Each structure stands twice: as C-alpha cells, then as structure tokens.
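Record pair follows.
FIRST:
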Amino acid sequence: MVKIIGIIVVFASVLGGFVLSGGKIGALIHPFEVMIIGGAALGAFLQANSGSTFMLVFKKSLSMFSSKFTHTYYLDVLKLIYEILNKSRREGMMAIEADIEDPAASPIFSKYPGILKDERMTAFVCDYLRIMSSGNMAPHELEGLFDMELSSLKEELEHPSHAVSAIADGMPAMGIVAAVLGIVITMSILAEADNAMIGYKVGSALVGTFLGILASYGFFAPLAASLGHDAKEELNVYEAIKASLVASASGMPPTLAVEFGRKVLYPAHRPSFSELEQAMRGS
C-alpha cells in the first residue's frame, strides 16, 4: 500500500506542479518519445540479461506491492524448523527421512504451504537436514558449507536489483537520445516551419529528456531499491535457518536452536520470545 501511495505522490507532485504552473497535460503526451525511450531501455535490458532474468524481474515487479516477508511468515519458518528438529530429537534423525525426501507429503511441511511452495527454500532446508542426518560433519564444517552456499545465493538474489538499477542509470541517457532525435527533426523543417511549429517540435524533444529522467529516478530506481530490499529479507530468512540448524548440530535443544534463528531475523517483523514460545507449545 505504501508503494502505491509513493507512485501516486510522484505523479501528483510532478503533473500537479506542471498544471498549476500553467502547463497543459497534452503537451507531455508524445507516444513516439515513449516508444524510443522504452524500446531502447528494453532492448538494452535484454542484451545485458538472460531471458530467465527478464521473467524473474517481471514477476517480482508485479509482486512488489505485497511482500511475503511478514511477521506471520517468519514465525512459520521458525515453527517449521522447530517441529522438524523436535521430531528428530525425540525419534532420531532417521524418523525425518520421509519428511525431507518428500516434503509435499510430509505432515510437518504440509502445515506451512507458504514455505512449501517456495521450492528453493524447501530444498535448502531438506538438503541440510540430510547432511545433518549423515552424522559425519562437524558443526563448524556445516557452518562453512552454509556460508559458501549463502554467498552464491546472495549473488543470485541480488541480481534482479542490479539489473534494474543498471536500466535506471541508463534511462536519462535514453531520454537524451529521444531529445536529440527530436532536435534533428526540428532542424530538418526549419526552412518551412513557423515559430509555433518550431516551438512545438523543440518542446516534444524536451519531453523525451523529461520522461527519461522521471522514469529513472521516479520509478526504476525505487523499483531496484525495492527488489534489493526483498533480496536482503529473503537472504535473512536463509541465515536464520542456518543459525538454527548449526545450533542444533552443535547439540542445542530445538527450543534453543530456533531462538538462535529468531535472533538473526530483522527486528521489524521478528517474533518476540514469548510469541515463539507459545507457537512452539501449540505445535
């Protein structure tokens, strides 16, 4: 909701200020300028990134108005880790073999559909539980493996943000390209054009610069920042899972192991100690 308000404020401030200063909205409507700027930006993006990155950025951009990283989601992650660790402690690591081999059929994972539908996170949890069940890896070795995977995961999660940021940086230049083309057109008609027509053509060219700068700093740069923030929040969840599993591998009881994970979470949506304790008792 806040992001929608932000977009509305950008439009209202820029267009409202323009109109109140005596400008006419029609003077800013130039579809071919939009085609030049938008098409050039899209072409540059496709050159710099793979098709899968384009689809990922498109999907994430559509979902930027609602984040899954809420207080409830964090609590569900910790409850899942607690339940699986608690079962392994009471019944042995072999007891969770069926859960980690087929999470979709697991009574534990099935309680948390929001996590289960995230295939990467589900696989992440199950892979490390398999490693822990082997019993051949020391806690510090397990932590080292976590760190190596999280390092590569960080690069992957942050790539959409970096890709959009590069386009945001280039949008003002795309606007200048549109403006230069507009000036070229203006120069080509100087012989037969009157002052009104020349003014119109120069104004159209300047709109290209305006659109490029507005798109960059008003929309694409904030989108890149939003994608970067989501990447940090998602990585934070993985770090919380790591902290809990490493603590468990070090001999901590499940209730204390998930407390390690809780402390890693960002404070904005982190469940309190009493909330987590109550949730574990309910589990």
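SECOND:
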Amino acid sequence: MKFAIGTRSIQVFPSGNRTAPLVVINASENEGEEIHNAIGSDVSLAVVTNIKWNDDLTPWAADAVFRNGSPFGGKADDYLSLLTGIMIPYAVERTGVCPEYIAIAGYSLAGLFALYSAYRTGLFSRVASISGSLWYPGFAEYAKNHALSGRIERIYLSLGDREVRTQNPYMRNVEKETYSLSCMYGEQGIVTEYELNAGNHFQEMVERTVKGIRWIIQ
C-alpha cells in the first residue's frame, strides 16, 4: 500500500504476520521493490521515496564536498519529526500492522540519517547504516559526544572495501570513522556488527542493504 504525505511517499509491504518487525528505509522506489522481493515475508518494509536527499537526510548544513556537488541543507530533524510523528503512524494505522519493534535502515546519506535518528528518537530499536556517509563533516564528533536513545539494541555498519580509495579528504576517512564508531557501540553493550564488503560505494547496493536488514532483524 502506498500513501502520499506532502511531497513524499511511503509504501508499506506488509508481512503475512502483522506483528513482524517493521523496517523503515529511505530509498528510491525501484530499490524498495527490489529490497522487498529479496527480503521475503519475515518483515514488513516501509519504503519512503521522493526525498530531498541533500536536505532531508543531513543533520546540519554543510558546504558541498564533491566537485560540482550541491551543498547540504541539514534538515534531518525536521524530516525525522515528519517521519516519526506523521508518516510512520499513518502507514501503520492504514495497513493494520502491529510490529514487535521498528527498525531503520539506509544506504549512503540514508545510512547517515538512520544512525543519526538513533540519537534523536526512541522509536527505532535497531539500525542498519549501509555504506553510510559517516564521513559527514562533524558527525563522528557528534556521535562520540552524545548519547544514543535508550532503546537501541542492534547496530549494523558496513562499507565497501574500496570506498577509502579516493582523493576526497572527507571520504577517505570513512572507514576509520565507521570502524571507530562500531567499536564504541560495542563497548556500550550494544550488539554491533561491522562489515567490509568487496567493492566501491556503488556496487551491489540492494544486496548490501538486504544483508544489513537481515542482520538487524535476527
């Protein structure tokens, strides 16, 4: 079932079991279909599309970091309020699911947003940040100096093993920062997985996302 809320859309693929976990993911529409087909019926999937990626998914404003790229608007808090306060409750009510818990997953900037949301709301108990943009200016410092919400049980972090092979001064720190955060979460007693996949940032995005989701719903 698909619903439009403002300019954004949310499509829910309900499990046959109405109490199955609900995983929320910000993605393109085609990716959502592929992820749903690969995941199967053990989980309900809510796919949000028509997102303003550089604005909705970034925690604070930042200059462009890529040649010919756009700056980042830093509207994640506004978008998170819409997502948790209106979009997810509406979709849950309309589809009749009653999930045991709600998790969030995402790839690239959506992976950054997924992990950031764990600091800003108690709605999600499990997080998968797949090839997450944890290089984002100031994010690692923020994560190390703020507390996660009290409900976080499992965190999955992954990267491609070639993502650090870049001249971009932000991107080349992503592996160090991601691994450092995974260690920190483990020390906090959170069940945490850090995984390096073969390839660069743009390879096997759906497959890596499915792998991350499957791990957090174990």
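COMMENT: The first strand starts at residue 2 and ends at 5.
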